[in-house]
Design goal:
Distance between the termini: 47 Å
Strand content: 15-25%
Oligomer: single chain
Shape: globular
Largest sheet: 10 strands, mixed
Length: 266
């Protein structure tokens, strides 16, 4: 695959293979000391729904907003922060929360090492998916909103290292969505704009330029929202298969059921 050629840049970060191999072993020791086993997981209840369509989603959970002391959700609204699914499922467990905090601190304090580990895990996930005769895809912002297209080592992003592999995310950063819609974005990185209680005007603009908009509704989904077709975003998380000019409807879950900010529609 094409990514095998571009992976070569990793070796330029070390003087020789032995040094690189030693560095990767250091990452494993760091993870063990910090209560982490790896960066990526192989999905949650929602992302696993894509397996019936032949896709395995691997995701990265960081500690959202500023829970780690570092803000990974620069465009989060009050309603978004309060309704975050960070504590859904296993996320309510203290060791899981601490692991997400540790990963986030690792990202900000040891960026190169973090990215090397991420590349290693993506490569392993691809191999595992191929053994299962499945297609891998990656969502690096499960509980964050980082501009991964701009996060590089040796001037190369993770999408450029694996150009044949699908990446996707939701974002509330309109500038990112605008660049994506204009084609000024990695071809294998799909974005869906996310609505909040205070960005409806930008949602309207996102729809006009061809982007899909994810919105949370109370109780059930309408067939139309602002005269745009609503599709059921809870059926699968494979947003890159949605087409264009859609409202990706999501029924409120967890803490969002108590929302009074307008983040949840209805």
């Amino acid at each position: 695959m094409a990514y095998l050629a571009s992976i070569w840049f990793l070796f330029e970060l070390a003087t020789n293979f032995k040094l690189l191999k030693k560095s990767l072993h250091c990452f494993d020791d760091y993870f063990n000391n910090q209560g982490m086993t790896k960066l990526l997981n192989n999905g949650n209840a929602k992302t696993r729904k894509g397996e019936k369509m032949g896709w395995i989603t691997y995701g990265l959970h960081l500690a959202p907003f500023n829970l780690s002391g570092f803000n990974v959700c620069s465009h989060a609204s009050k309603g978004c922060a309060a309704s975050c699914l960070n504590t859904a499922g296993r996320g309510r467990m203290k060791p899981v929360q601490q692991a997400r905090i540790n990963k986030t601190k690792f990202f900000f304090s040891n960026r190169t090492e973090f990215m090397l580990q991420l590349v290693k895990e993506v490569k392993n996930a691809i191999k595992l998916s191929e053994k299962k005769n499945m297609k891998p895809c990656f969502r690096l912002n499960l509980t964050s909103d980082l501009p991964w297209e701009n996060i590089k080592i040796d001037k190369i992003s993770i999408m450029e290292i694996f150009p044949d592999i699908q990446f996707y995310d939701y974002t509330k950063n309109f500038n990112r969505v605008q660049k994506w819609a204009n084609g000024d974005f990695p071809k294998n990185y799909h974005l869906t704009f996310s609505r909040s209680e205070c960005n409806q005007a930008k949602c309207d603009l996102a729809s006009k330029i061809g982007a899909n908009v994810a919105a949370v509704f109370r109780g059930s989904l309408p067939s139309l929202y602002n005269d745009i077709k609503v599709i059921n975003g809870d059926e699968t998380d494979l947003r890159f298969l949605d087409g264009k000019n859609k409202i990706v409807g999501l029924v409120e879950k967890g803490l969002a059921k108590k929302d009074e900010t307008g983040f949840v529609i209805g």
